[in-house]
From TrEMBL:
Belongs to the citrate synthase family. Coiled coil: none annotated. GO terms for cellular component: cytosol. The keyword Transferase applies. It catalyses: oxaloacetate + acetyl-CoA + H2O = citrate + CoA + H(+). Pathway: Carbohydrate metabolism; tricarboxylic acid cycle. This is Citrate synthase. InterPro entries: Citrate_synth-like_lrg_a-sub, Citrate_synth-like_sm_a-sub, Citrate_synthase, Citrate_synthase_AS, Citrate_synthase_bac-typ, Citrate_synthase_sf. One of its GO terms (biological process) is carbohydrate metabolic process. One of its GO terms (molecular function) is citrate synthase activity. Keywords: Transferase. The active site is at H268, E327.
Length: 388
C-alpha cells in the first residue's frame, strides 16, 4: 500500500450514516420519524405556514414578520417571469416531451440569460439573489413545458397568487380551488428539504467547486430524475392501477416481493418508522376526498393497499422495518388536485429547488472542495501495454 492508501477511511456503501459536513438548515432523525427545517418541525411548518414563509426561513435563517413576508413574496413574484428569449425557446425545449429533461435545459439557459457567475466570485448577497432568481421561475418553466407538449399556449404567472396556487393556475389556466392550492402547498413545504439526499448532496458537491447556482441546480435535477429518488410518486400511483381491486392486493404484493421487484412508495433509506411526510399527506388526501365519492374511493383503496403491502412485507421481510414513504400518498394528493402524473416528479422539483438553493448558499461559505477517494479493484498495474 502507498502512504495515500494507508490514509483511506472505509465507509458504508452509499455513504450511509457518514457525516460529511455541518449544516444549519435541518436534518432527519430516521429512528424517531422526525425531520426539521432549522429549529422547526417540517410537518408543523407544513400545517401552519406558507411555502414562502418556509423559503424565507431557509434563506434567511428566520421566519418572516408581516413586512418581510410581503417583501419576500413580491421578490418571488417578480422573479417568476422569464426572459423573452427563454419564452421563445420553450417550444423547442418542450419537444423532448419530458418535463424534467426540458427543465434541465431551461435552467441552464436561464443561468446563462441571467449572467450567473460562479458562487466562488460572488458576495453572499449576490449568491442569494441568484438563488431566488433561479428557484422562483421553475414552476413557470414546468407549467409552460407541460402545456406546450399538450399543444396548448403557456399561461403567464400572476403576481397576486402564492407560489403553489400560481403553479396550478399556470398548469390548468383556471383559478385553483383553495383546498387544492393549499394541499399542493403543504406537499411542497413537506418536500423542500430532507437531509443530504442524492440530489441535495449533488448540488453541494457542485457548489463546493465554486460553480454558479444554475450549474448546481442542473446537476441536482439530474439526480432527482432517477426513479429511485424523485421519480417514484407517479410509479406509486401506477401500483394502485396495477392492483386494481381489493381482492388482488395480497397476491399482487406477494408476487412482486417474491420476484424481487421494488414496490414504489414503501421503504426509505433513513426512516425506520413511519415517514412523517406520509402520515401528514394521508390526512391531506382524506381532507381533499371528503364529500367526493370517486376521490373517497381512491383514498380508501390506497389505504387498503398500504395495509396489504405492509402486512406482506412484515411477513416476508421480517425485521426490515419497511414503512410507507412520502411518494405513496404524495401521488394520491397530486392526483386529487388535478395534476397530471407526468408532472408529479416535476412538482417535487418545484419544492426541492428551494432546498437545493439554500444548500448551495451554505456550501458556498466553505472553500473546501468535496473530493472523496475510491478503491481500485481492477487488474494490478502497471502492466505492459500491448503493441497495436
Amino acid at each position: 500500500m502507498t502512504a495515500l492508501q494507508d490514509e483511506l477511511v472505509e465507509v458504508p456503501r452509499g455513504l450511509k450514516g457518514v457525516v460529511v459536513t455541518d449544516t444549519a438548515l435541518g436534518t432527519v432523525r430516521g429512528r424517531q420519524g422526525f425531520y426539521h427545517y432549522r429549529q422547526y418541525s417540517a410537518v408543523e411548518l407544513a400545517e401552519r405556514r406558507s411555502l414562502e414563509d418556509v423559503w424565507h426561513l431557509q434563506l434567511e435563517g428566520r421566519l418572516p414578520d408581516a413586512h418581510e413576508r410581503a417583501r419576500f413574496a413580491a421578490e418571488v413574484a417578480a422573479a417568476r417571469h422569464l426572459p423573452q428569449d427563454l419564452w421563445d425557446a420553450l417550444p423547442l425545449v418542450a419537444a423532448s416531451g419530458d418535463p424534467m429533461t426540458g427543465l434541465r435545459t431551461a435552467v441552464s439557459w436561464l443561468g446563462a440569460a441571467r449572467g450567473m457567475r460562479p458562487v466562488y466570485d460572488l458576495t453572499p448577497a449576490e449568491r442569494r439573489a441568484d438563488a431566488v432568481a433561479l428557484a422562483a421561475p421553475v414552476p413557470t418553466i414546468l407549467a409552460a413545458l407541460h402545456r406546450l407538449a399538450a399543444g396548448l399556449d403557456p399561461v403567464p404567472p400572476r403576481d397576486d397568487l402564492g407560489h403553489a396556487a400560481n403553479y396550478l393556475w399556470m398548469i390548468t389556466g383556471q383559478q385553483p380551488e383553495p383546498a387544492a392550492a393549499r394541499a399542493v402547498e403543504q406537499y411542497l413545504v413537506l418536500t423542500v428539504d430532507h437531509g443530504f439526499n442524492a440530489s441535495t448532496f449533488t448540488a453541494r458537491v457542485i457548489a463546493s467547486t465554486g460553480a454558479d447556482v444554475a450549474a448546481c441546480v442542473v446537476g441536482a435535477l439530474g439526480a432527482l430524475s432517477g426513479p429511485l429518488h424523485g421519480g417514484a410518486p407517479s410509479r406509486a400511483l401506477d401500483t394502485l392501477d396495477a392492483i386494481g381491486s381489493a381482492d388482488r392486493i395480497d397476491p399482487w404484493v406477494r408476487a412482486a416481493v417474491e420476484s424481487g421487484d421494488r414496490i414504489m412508495g414503501f421503504g426509505h433509506p433513513i426512516y425506520r418508522t413511519e415517514d412523517p411526510r406520509s402520515r401528514m399527506l394521508k390526512g391531506v388526501a382524506r381532507g381533499l376526498a371528503t364529500g367526493r365519492p370517486e376521490a373517497e374511493r381512491l383514498v380508501a383503496f390506497a389505504e387498503e393497499v398500504e395495509h396489504g403491502v405492509l402486512s406482506v412485507l412484515a411477513e416476508l421481510k421480517p425485521g426490515r422495518e419497511l414503512h410507507t414513504n412520502v411518494e405513496f400518498y404524495a401521488g394520491v394528493v397530486m392526483e386529487l388536485c388535478g395534476l397530471p402524473r407526468a408532472m408529479f416528479t416535476p412538482t417535487f422539483a418545484v419544492a426541492r429547488v428551494i432546498g437545493w438553493s439554500a444548500n448551495v448558499l451554505e456550501q458556498a461559505l466553505d472553500s473546501k472542495i468535496i473530493r472523496p477517494s475510491s478503491r481500485y479493484v481492477g487488474p494490478p498495474p502497471p502492466q505492459p501495454v500491448p503493441s497495436a
